Prior knowledge:
By secondary structure, this protein is of the alpha/beta class. It has one domain: Vaccinia Virus protein VP39 (Rossmann fold, 3-Layer(aba) Sandwich). Helix content is 32%, strand content 21%. The chain is built from eleven helices and eight strands. The protein is globular.
Amino acid sequence: MQTEAQLKEIVKKKYSEIALQDKETNMSSCCGAGGCSTEIYNIMSEDYTALKGYNVDADLGLGCGLPTQFAQIKKGDVVVDLGSGAGNDCFIARHETGETGKVIGIDFTPAMIEKARSNAEVRGFNNVEFRQGDIESMPITSNAADVIVSNCVLNLVPNKDAVIKDIYRVLKPGGHFSISDVVLVGALPEGLRKDAEMYAGCVSGAIQKEVYMELIHANGFEQITIQKEKPIIIPDDILINYLTPEQLIAFKNGDTGIFSVTVFAKKPTSENKCVPGGGCC
């Protein structure tokens, strides 16, 4: 079993490689990791092309939802994107928040930060900033963000509770998040759960849906809502790399499900409400 530090290093190494891959390669695998599939073109990600502010150069095909579509971003908002990659969601958020707002992307992979900064500079996006750092301890002051978005990133972080606590810290009172992520219903086969590459591929790092939702509730958020949910089907030609033929049949005929969910939650406006560490959550 890998330690948290080892898992994070696996993800950093893999996503440094992914930053140099083309979109088609990323979209035909699991969040860019693992073997490509010949069965289907798009395993997890959704079509961004109809969203205003979309920039094809910033779309690496790594997401599992469209959180910015559901994020209720207003003109002048400060928006933070966790795991910002090449800047795709940041640039769409910039369109929504306008010239009077600000967008901050956080990513811990230097290659992604470099790519995102280049994409922003060439387009003259002066109110979009990219900072290198961990999303468990964001390089952002407390109570700074109106909205936080993230797309298929929390499942890559071993300590999800720490991320949710830091989201609470960074959001302004009354601020909210809209996060797309991968969750499970039922137990993954051991071959998928323990494989390091499948961790980097968003699958084995996912947790149970009910545990995920409870973590959000336990950290003091309110108005918790699933805005969108869809099943994720991993093709046989990827699964066979991790499971025996018998395990593959059992997995496909069993009760385990892998889902993309987009979750909304709001930080309370009142200081009298439950806060993380206050003993009331």
